[in-house]
SBSPO protein
Amino acid sequence: PCVVSQWSAWSGCAEPCKAAARFRRREIIQEPRNGGEACPALEERAGCMEYWTGQGTECKQSLIPALITTGGFGKARKKRAAADGKERAGYCVEFQLLTITPGCQHSPHSYTRWMWYLREGHTVCVECQHPALDPRSQHCSGDGTGSNKKQLLHWRAVGNPRCQGTWRRTRQLDTCSCPSVHSFLFI
């Protein structure tokens, strides 16, 4: 039968700051002879995302997955965060949910039950407020700033690593009036 080497280490991402591919290879040590078993695949590819350029600078905001939690956390956050009035008040971004992993529906803890209400196709409203609002950029990580309307963006739910998905940014609102059921916060 064919004999192959061990897999090489995974390559780096083909392109920084883009959804790209990485690969690994193995070599043929012995070709099959006399009707022996054929060689298996010699290359594997996998998706990857590199968040730093080759020069060591962070990629554009629109490529960073958004970390979200329930909007109900906002009232408690505002009480704890002693904003001194110099920070921007915050803003909201509306997204259309495109994909949701099944892990969102299987959150056993009471603090993750908000994930049960996530549904593909729904529009959700995510608030960016202090302290998640970066004082330098005046944005929250993963808010999709700089993305185009067709670009798929990624999000992850805080408290359940199996709950994540994609969404598309529809618009930014400078004053927030998010509905309570589909209201979330950037972390």
